[in-house]
What does this fold into?
Amino acid sequence: MPRSRVLSLLTLLTLLMFTPNSWAAPRVVVSILPLHALVAEVMQGVAQPQLLLDGGSSPHSYALRPSQARQLSQAELVVWMGAGLESFLVKPLQTLGKQTTLLTLHQVPGLALLENRQPLHWLEQSAVHDHDAHQDHAADTDHDLDAHQDHAADTDHDHDAHQDHAADTDHDHDAHQDHTADTVHDHDAHQDHTGHDHGKLDLHLWLDPQQAILMVHAVAKQLSQLDAANATRYQQNAQHLVERLEQLTLRLATQLEPVRQRPYLVFHDAYHYFERRFGLATTAALTLNPESRPSAKAMQQVRQLIQRQGAVCLFSEPQFEPAMVQAIARDTGLRTAELDPLGSQLQPGIGAYFTLLTNLANALSNCLTTP
It folds into this structure.
């Protein structure tokens, strides 16, 4: 046998022995950039998950291209948040075969789910009560997050130090789990419940890094079941990621502490989990559905609320037309800035989740800091 061929065979054997089993890794498709970033971290060194929507596309109003439908049909694992956020995926997911596993992240056990806040009701409550009274009213509708998060921490990771810093109140997950469970083959009833008004539950859970920790564990568990050969790598990656998410939580809490009591408004009510985690004093959102414009009555209420509450900033989003935000800012003298919950300008993949949350904290602290 020629010497060159022997060397080639030896090289191939070496690669077989020491290269991760990337050819055996499941084909993974993830719906949106923040979730994709977390999955990419768990799969680091094994394979790259595919991203369905880039950060510049809104999951609230999207139609799949044929190439994306093919991506889904070839996937062995699809990771999404759920029908209440990515409603455009409900029908395509119903067509997938038994070879595809669906991981619906809002159903992960231990998550503290919040209900959507209705902007008009929110504004009407604010017109009658001051901000503190409204916060008490919101808290009365929820169960104790401390106890819930401590229970989740006992099953996964120790969060005691941070939970002491970020006490919240939320709904009992088990009740919501029974009420909102959906599968790849049975979405019709859930879709009726979570239509264009986004349903009852707020599914922007990735904006709370402590909720992200539970999702990371679920991703690692699912990947390990599908790909036992790389299970150790997935678990190690997940543990390292959890440690970094803990550090991120503490760092952002320290950064946002000086502006926690500074009231502000957002264009789109996507930040409930972020606000609850870090104790921020949001006053109202202009809309729950970013494709719908608030009524003239709601806009008048917004202007009155700004004056009454002394709001400092109004935040828009890059995915949506900012003209309405600019008009309110001109009328009221509010400072404006941009929050991006989806990472529209970020490079997908490893590190993107940390950049996304850091950018949110930077935008909030910069605008809310007294000039």
Remarks:
- The CA atoms of residues 18 and 258 lie 50 Å apart.
